[in-house]
Amino acid sequence: MTLQTVIDLVLGGISLGGIYALVAFALSLSLATTHVLNVAHGTFMVLGAALATLLFRFAPIGWPLAVLILVLAFAALGLFFEAAFVRPFAAKSPEQILVGSILVTFGFALTVEALLGYGWARWVDPQPAFSLAFPFARVTVLGVAVSGTRLTILLAAAAAITGFHLFLRRTPLGRAVRAVAQNYAGAVILGVNPRRVSVVIYLAGIVATAGAGVLLALAIPLEPYSGLRLTLVAMTIVVIGGVGSLPGALLGGGLLGMAEVLTAYTLGSVWSPVVSLLVFFSVLVVRPEGLWGRRA
Amino acid sequence: MRGRTRVLEVADLTVSYGDLRVLWGVSFTVAAGELVALIGPNGAGKSTALKAIAGLIPAEAGRVTLDGVSLLDEPPYTRIRRGLSLVPEGRGLFPAMTVRENLELGGFAVPPPDGLRAAIERVCALFPILAARRGQLAGTLSGGEQQMLAIAMAVLSRPRLLVLDEPSLGLAPLVVDRLYETVARLKREGLTIFLVEQQVFLALELADRAYVLETGRIRQEGPGRALLADAHVKEAYLGMTASSG
């Protein structure tokens, strides 16, 4: 194994880990604030990758315009999703919300994936696959050649995670989000409108998740039915990292990302889900409370 | 109390959980500057009354007004802007946030006119324990310190009415004494306070007036000291039989 291979593997692992951490954190924030377990979370990654693929395929636009269109489209979708699948649960008990939301979002995911697979195969390409090419395939950093795509993925994911972190820590609205996650009634009494928190979380969360899907499509082609597998990855990270914990999401995401890349290199990518499950069970056996106990 | 403005007025408040009626047309008032206590046994509906006032559960019938403005049409999260500040039973704080962040949330709905930082300095002067622990996570404070923090958060919005739900719950007697000194000081400073308490002796000693709530109905009302001397209150709440009292 050459040094170049080691560098490629590590960068591959942590960039994938960055995507996973971002997606998992968005999922766990929505779970912590609204008790909705969004099974369609990974589907939004697929939709992000699909829309980006479509944009670059049929329109001669550059990245800035594409990013703007993606953000606007998924902000709108986030608002719709919140209104249609989260708000109706508002008056229910946390347990009712959890069970009800799993059913409803599972149905949403299946419907969207079936429509996407059918529509794409019929109108775009009989073999649906969403993948994106990045103009800077290789760049040299400090005399070492690294994958420009992977580096971009890592930087973009890190920027998004930092943005989430600063929002939650430094702004009054971000503090209100954390307050709702830690003590719902206490936050309401202090004047926090839980509806507003829910709208913000789903809007930002779904835009970030779709963005993570675009980043993932730079590295790995996605298919219409990849969504549920990606949701499982995110849920695994939430469980091993702790609900609402950013350090836990980073640690869990990095762990699963590295495991997946190393498995693909040594055993072949067919084995990646098996190794992910092994990591999952090992963490649960060693630390059942998750890697990071603290919340939000 | 005639002539003083009524801050809180609750009239014929009726609340049910499903088919189970918990409050049956309960009425009480709190005038400006008064400390009014609501006492009663477990399950009498004291916390239910507070939750209905705060809007955490719906009222079936009746009126709740603060400074003459009806609260029942308002969503729960705007009532603090009307001047209602509740310290819920078991404290309304956020365990995984620092004391400072908790205090900042106390000023979330009603930003202090002189800025959040100055307001936090002010309440820290009032609650010296908190000043030393500003960077500490609220969940790591002792029970008494957490209750102090919860009250500090509640007064940060400069409420018209401070409502305390069982502030002594789960605290050691010495800590309860210190807590009541703080409540007494807030009262001296002119704050209007509505206190729900199971530690009947402490509450009645401090209260200008008090109401006794039993099985969802107001059974008695009167000045705190007068109720302390009342035969029924003595027997039911202070553990004294008529002969020994």
Mind explaining what this structure looks like?
The complex is a heterodimer of chains A (296) and B (245). Chain A is mainly α. In chain A, 75% of the residues lie in helices and 3% in strands. Chain A has eleven helices and two strands; from the N terminus they run ααααββααααααα. Chain A has a two-stranded antiparallel ribbon. In chain A, helix 1 crosses helix 6 and helix 3 crosses helix 8. Chain A is globular and about 60 Å long. Chain B has 245 residues and is α/β, with parallel strands linked by helices. Chain B has nine helices and ten strands. In chain B, the strands form two sheets. A six-stranded mixed beta sheet of chain B has the order 6-7-8-3-9-10, with helices on both faces. In chain B, helix 2 packs parallel to helix 5. Chain B is globular, with a radius of gyration of 18 Å. The model of chain B has no long low-confidence stretch (mean pLDDT 92). Chains A and B meet through helix 6 and helix 7 of A and helix 2 of B.
Q: Which descriptors would you attach to this protein?
A:
heterodimer; A: 296 residues; mainly alpha; two-stranded antiparallel sheet; 11 helices; 75% helix; B: 245 residues; alpha/beta; six-stranded mixed sheet; 9 helices; 10 strands; 27% strand
H-E string of chain B? EEEHEEEHHHHEHEHEEHH
Number of strands of chain A: 2
The fraction of residues assigned to DSSP E strands of chain A is under 5%
The secondary-structure class of chain A comes to mainly alpha
Which oligomeric form is depicted? heterodimer
| Low-confidence sequence ranges of chain B | none
Describe the strand arrangement of the main beta sheet of chain A, using strand numbers: 1-2
User: Helix coverage percent of residues of chain A?
Assistant: over 70%
Alpha-beta classification of chain B: alpha/beta
What is the typical, i.e. mean, pLDDT of chain B? 92
Give a count of the beta strands of chain B, DSSP E runs of length 2 or more.
10
The proportion of residues in beta strands of chain B is 25-35%
- Widest sheet: strand ordering of chain B: 6-7-8-3-9-10
Q: Span between N and C termini of chain B?
A: 29 Å
- What Rg of chain B is obtained from the alpha carbons, in whole angstroms? 18 Å
Specify Rg of chain A, calculated over alpha carbons: 19 Å
Shape of chain B: globular
Uncertain spans of chain A, ≥5 residues at pLDDT below 50? none
